[in-house]
Amino acid sequence: MKKYRHIMYMIVGNNLCFSFLNSITVTTVDFVDNYVFFNNFGPFETQAGLLSKILIQAWFFLISSSVFTTITFFLYCQSTICLRSKLSKKAIAIIYIMLQAFNCGISVKGGYAMDDSQRPFYTAILRKDGIYYGDDVKFNVTALNSGVYLAAILMCVTLSCVYAVMTYCANQCYKELTLRRVHMSAANINFHTQLSKLLLVMSEKEEKVRVISNRNWLTLSSIEYDPYYCLIPEYWKPDPLAIAPDSITLVTHSAVEFVDFIDEHLKTWTGPISMALIVPNPMHVVNVSGMNDIGSDDIVNYAFSYSLAKLELLKAKKSNLITLSLLYQRVSECYNTLRVPLARLKADPELVTDTYNTLRRFSGYPANYLRNIATKGSPTNLIFQTEIENLPSEGFEKALRPLANELLVHGNRRKTLLIVPEFESSLGLEIPRNKLQLREMYNNDDVVEAYTKRSRANNHRIPYLERWMEHSDVDITPFKVIPYQGNRWEPSFIAHRSNLPSHPELLSIVHQDARFQVEEACRDGFDFVIINNLFTVHAGFRKIVDQMIDGAKNDTMRIMLNNYKVFKESLDLLYPINKFKCPEKAVEHMI
User: Which of 21, 235, 261, 430 holds its CA 20 to 30 A away from the CA of 40?
Assistant: First the structure.
């Protein structure tokens, strides 16, 4: 876009410069002709003749130079637009040099013609008739000067008007393409798509690489994850040199609505973080008002752009410890090139809001897809798997790192899940950061086990909680080995990812879908060990989450029931020995 405007500036400026210099040249020649040659000012006659010749040659040169320069600009624009017959910059430069050489030849020839014919040659050109002396000559020269000035003024006004209109249209087009604030019909979308292709081609060469950031665009590339989803891997990539190999990676997932929690984790988490984020399809989304938000091969839609814009507002973006991958639902294909205008990423924060239909998008929230992507993106083998809203206690990773490495890496106990108790605090209260604060708030009923107020389910409960709460040892140690708590159980845990089963992706139902991995881990012979003194806290409770989960639950229940039967059959085939070690309950009573 900027190059397009610069070319326009050069063309218009070239013509304005020509018209101005041309008028000065013609006027000067007439002055010399009238007051030097025809009044015969003796000593100055020779010098005036030379000056006149130089001015006439300059006049010839300016005329043809202006025309040839404009032709060269036209060739450049035309060759840039027509990709199949594109001329290189070198070829255009050669054409320009040849044209200017031809221009010099014409100028010299014109000068000689003037010299051979003495003065009548340019006199006939510059004047309407062949008058030689007296007031009539001065009158005609004055009339000629007035005509030249009027023509120059009219040319300037005309070019200024054309330039103003072209600039206005170009700027309006730019705003329309990058900040489209009005609903556009299908015909308008097609027109602006084609126009955007023209402007994009004129502004820069397209380079199809994974991520390119320049002054105007961010270019991303997505790959096929499976038939239903597309993945943009490592949108944020950590610095490997900043990550200790024995550290624990916090593995989590989120929708755009809750991604702000990642900044809260950075306040206390000392290790790396791997997160997967579900984002809108970059080409087609139906927004809250029921209108289509459509993108193209050259510019993504607003829902996708503003999801990335929200990430730009996070402090976590500057961290060199975070791996962030993006997942979007596949509609037709996975797009190799996604172009995002940087102007949208820097939009007013008030515009970067969650304007999508959250309830509808949560009904298709692929939680287990995201968990698997985040686990694979972990830069270390030790992972802490939890929900993004559950904030770990102070110094969690640094304190647990020695024990986790001792048990899960060096102690040959890789088939072990280190269980972390989860709690929920009342809204408006400062969340507890250590066990002393937790015990005080727990005794005052300001803290309860996670999610027990909204449901009687035991999906996050652990046994021996009262004893764990009263345990006075301040060291980070194994508290107790516990049995599997049933197939409704989905605790937060630390594990070595090498032997950890993946989440079954066909069982992504938003609510209580992490339990299927824990159930398979039990069938695979994993032990469950509660860790002392470390915990997580869910800050408050938001009713909107329940509404979204209820909608998701209703949409996916029938599909989930069928997939769960297939999942149970596969467990029986893979792990027949431990079938009775892990208690089973009817799936109908789990949700």
Answer: 21
pLDDT tens for residues 184-197? 445 555 554 555 55
- By CB atoms closer than 10 A (0-12, 13-18, 19+), residue 447 is buried
Q: Are residues 136 and 231 in the same domain?
A: no
Parent domain of 464: 381-591
Packed helices 186-203 and 2-32: angle between N→C axes, nearest 10 degrees: 70
Spatial distance between the Cα atoms of 380 and 244, rounded to a whole number of angstroms: 8
Output the CA torsion sign for 322, 328, 333, 335.
negative
Domain count, the chain: 3
Q: Residue 564 falls within a domain, yes or no?
A: yes
pLDDT at res. 59 = 61
Report the 10 Å Cβ neighbour count for 119.
15
Query: Which amino acid, one-letter code, is at 235?
Result: Y
499 half-sphere exposure, CB direction, 13 A CA radius? 18
Question: Could you list the mean pLDDT of each consecutive 10-residue stretch along the chain, which spans 591 residues?
Answer: 51 56 53 47 47 59 59 54 52 70 60 44 41 41 46 55 51 46 47 51 41 66 93 94 95 92 94 95 73 75 87 90 95 89 74 51 76 96 95 95 94 88 88 93 89 67 91 88 90 94 81 85 95 91 50 58 84 87 56 35
- Whether 507 and 482 have beta carbons less than 8 Å apart is answered as no
**pTM of the entire predicted model:** 0.63
Give pLDDT, residue 29.
52
DSSP 588: G
Residues 37 and 143 occupy one common structural domain: yes
Edge to edge, the sheet with strand 536-539 lists 390-392, 536-539, 422-425, 447-449
Contacts of 125 (CB under 8 A, 6+ apart): none
Q: Is residue 490 part of a domain?
A: yes
Amino acid (one-letter) located at 130: G
Q: Which residue has the tokens 């929230």?
A: 365
102-107: long-range contacts, CB 8 A cutoff, minimum separation 24: 102/64, 102/68, 103/61, 103/64, 103/65, 103/68, 104/61, 106/60, 106/64, 107/57, 107/58, 107/60, 107/61, 107/64
Q: Is residue 202 in some structural domain?
A: no
**DSSP H helices in 179-247:** 186-203
Q: Residue 33: beta bridge partners? A: none
